[in-house]
């Protein structure tokens, strides 16, 4: 906090217009309902504005032009590591979300082969196996929390497909349930800010760190096992162990670096899938006629779900040098953040933005979406590396469910969205399982090309 305040005091130039005086009401509003707060500020100030959140002023940039500037045309002027994703580093460490420059390029290069279309196609059999196993317990009239059901399923898929880790073996050998430990760790960011700053034996911080250490024991044990067996494996962990060298052949990734990448991709590989599946079936439950239409297209329904509920809802950066976005000057060294969630709900960009309309992404309409308007996976050189894997996984889960069932959200359920670190249903997603005839339009692999940022 002291460092943030010092940077703000020494920043050259003025912050963009906005609400720059301290306000606890605004701070709590940003914690609990940032979408409403930022849409209101956009209406009053335009696409570039300042909001003081607790102790510091933050520059928010919204809309197609701002997104393209930050993600593509001037991406080199913005750092990730010193942005607010640093708040995730106690759990994720120096993974892909928190590194910049050559280290980021090296790490991404080492991992890219695992996310080629051919490798993802090979992983589809494993995805289907895990989904079939999880669905074997379903029956008509069964009540489940879809969000938590998918959370455990997606973590199992990520652990097995990306890192060759057997969750059942981890529980037998290490006495921990990895899905539970991830839940324990990530619950830290669902707490109010005043609780997150606490330290001590019973604080959320201490519980998060304890869960992270238990997960570390599983990851480091697998690293050591592979090295001892001289069999690095044909998966993402094997690629990191085998090819993580710089151009001069020196080892560039330590075991700690590899652990950080594993933790980051386990987080990204299950948290985003979980929320997208839950929100998809929430919308299909509210619009049951969609899946019954002969021309129902699961791919466009997923695209529209990611528009309304982009899991990585905010992209924190820090400006390296001065910048100008949409005609507004921004001083160097200040925090600058874009928000896909807010950009996807701008009424002057999207018609009826709060309504679920998969037809926006049909072949006839897709090209009409402005460049930079749709950014659920980020853009440019930092487009989500696991985008194709996540799309394929979500498509397998959703198509398997829709081939046999319809899910009815409980009548008394009122959706509230929590947004830290990714958006998801705050109170889970209680549904009743109903057997039904298969939905139409379930073909394909779900791996649509992203719309240009």
What would you note in describing this structure?
The protein has 18 helices and 13 strands. It has 453 residues and is of the alpha+beta class. The protein has one domain (2-435): Orthogonal Bundle (Cytochrome p450), CATH 1.10.630. Strand 2 (48-53) and strand 3 form a beta hairpin. The mean pLDDT is 89.
CATH level-3 fold name: Cytochrome p450
Fraction of helical residues: 40-55%
- Domain tally: 1
- For the largest beta sheet, what order do the strands appear in spatially? 1-2-3-9-6-4
The appropriate CATH architecture is Orthogonal Bundle
The computed structural class is alpha+beta
Uncertain residue ranges: none
Q: How would you state the average pLDDT, rounded?
A: 89
Write down the overall geometry. Answer: globular
Number of helices: 18
- Assembly classification: single chain
Number of strands: 13
Proportion of beta-strand residues:
5-15%
The Rg value, from CA coordinates, equals 22 Å
Output the CATH class name: Mainly Alpha
The fourth-level CATH homologous superfamily is Cytochrome P450
In this structure, how is the largest beta sheet organized? 6 strands, mixed
Q: State the end-to-end CA separation.
A: 32 Å
